[in-house]
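Archive record:
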Amino acid sequence: MSFIEARHLVKTYGVGEQLVHALNDVTLEIQRGEFVAIVGASGSGKSTFMNMIGCLDQPTTGSCLIAGEDIATLDSNALANLRNRRIGFVFQQFNLLARTSALENVALPLLYAREGDLGGLTKQDRLEHAKKRLEQVGLGERLSNTPAQLSGGQQQRVAIARALVNDPDLILADEPTGALDSKTSAEVMDLLTYLNEQGITVVVVTHEQDVAAYANRTITFKDGRVLADQKNAPRNLESTKSLDKLPKTLQGDNSL
């Protein structure tokens, strides 16, 4: 079943007197439960496409359906509601509140939950739910630490826990390893791989081929169009970390 369905997607911007086609007749589908990498050079359209499927922007023409809802027909409030219900975001620079604890950073999106079991939670319930997410990414002993007291890899794990706190169908990660060293990057990608194996759809926007290799499928953008769309070869055992190297709280935990 398609979770994301783009049909003849066009996004244009006016730059002075020039019309720029950031996306030019993009048609593709991403199935529920897929792990997809979006790659391309700067200016290729990959970031614009990410903004589109993240409900941060709307097409000039064409349609973009997220879980059956066409974002072109939604107003700003409906777009925000769809983002909050369906999508968890992970960013290159973590985007954590500097003077706020890891626990409170993760709990923050629950303030805006409007529907379902997570809507209208008390502050204590929000913090308890956030605590579970931090424990699931191996940071159960870092609840009270601020970002400055955490390593880059730990900050990105806080960001992943925050992305998970609303029980999203989709994790959208924009250059999630761009600010990390190679060892920490591998640990973050192992964590995203594990979450995908639990049934969450994962889309990673990256310019790094070794990061794209974690995905099951790579879509390459160039000049606002899809240049290539291909399945990735299964990663061999030497290039894939074993489950026992993931945070122990993730092992055998299917509550994600």
Summary: The CA atoms of residues 85 and 102 lie 22 Å apart. The radius of gyration is 18 Å.
